[in-house]
Amino acid sequence: MQEILTIKHLSKSFMIHNLGKQIEALRDICLDLREGEFVGITGKSGSGKSTVFKCIYRTYIPQKGSIWYQSKNFGLVNIAELSERQMVYLRKHEIGYVSQFLNTMPRTTAQELVKHAVLEMGHKEEYAEWEANSMLEHFELDRGLWDCYPSTFSGGEKLRLNIARAMVKRPRLLLLDEPTASLDHASKLKVRELIEQLKREGTTMIGIFHDLEFMENLCSREYTMRNGKLEDIENLT
């Protein structure tokens, strides 16, 4: 299998202007990810896990290093140097991101939100509606909520909707930032079921987890973040 993502010597720091202090969030991160792999990352809050994801998704721009991604549309590209237009394309068509927080379009219902994700991939209206409904049913989101605005949802309902919206697109690369953070046991099993299905279909994934039990027998490799550095725990394959 070829490598789909190669991170080389990635570093990121933040300036706290009112304190005149610079905080080093990432230090010399290196990671290779092959097609179809699922890599798990653990670590304490504030260790830099989410910052890695935000650099891959290009909501943060690193000070040093490169993030080489094998795009289906553009070929091999360095995400750190892509144009905004190219990055928007990758977010719509190739790279998915599930965060703990749900950002939605105003006056958009739960069903419309998931359906819109499918339409972005170029599918027709009828197929998009069918896929959206199937995904909402899988995550057991009450049908009475489908035509409601997500701003009224509980934390767990918002997270399930966020996961449904990202997974329905079946992206080539999926970033999962604490996808089970506020879910009950039954909902966690639904997430795991979808992850296992995506693995079978060839989706490459990186996941950040505090729930070590959830990661068991799921990851190809496991790393931990300590003080901005990525450390290999063991090779599970």
Automatic annotation (TrEMBL):
Q: Which residues form the ABC transporter domain?
A: 5-236
Record InterPro entries? AAA+_ATPase, ABC_transporter-like_ATP-bd, ABC_transpr_LolD-like, P-loop_NTPase
Supply one GO CC term from the record.
Answer: plasma membrane
Check the record and name the SMART domains matching this protein: AAA (SM00382)
Q: Which domain of life is it from?
A: Bacteria
The UniProt keywords, alphabetically, are: ATP-binding, Nucleotide-binding
**PROSITE patterns registered for this protein in UniProt:** ABC_TRANSPORTER_2 (PS50893)
Is Nucleotide-binding one of the keywords UniProt gives this record?
yes
GO terms assigned for molecular function: ATP binding; ATP hydrolysis activity; transmembrane transporter activity
Name listed for the protein in its UniProt record: ABC-type phosphonate transport system, ATPase component
Q: Which organism is it from?
A: Desulfosporosinus youngiae DSM 17734
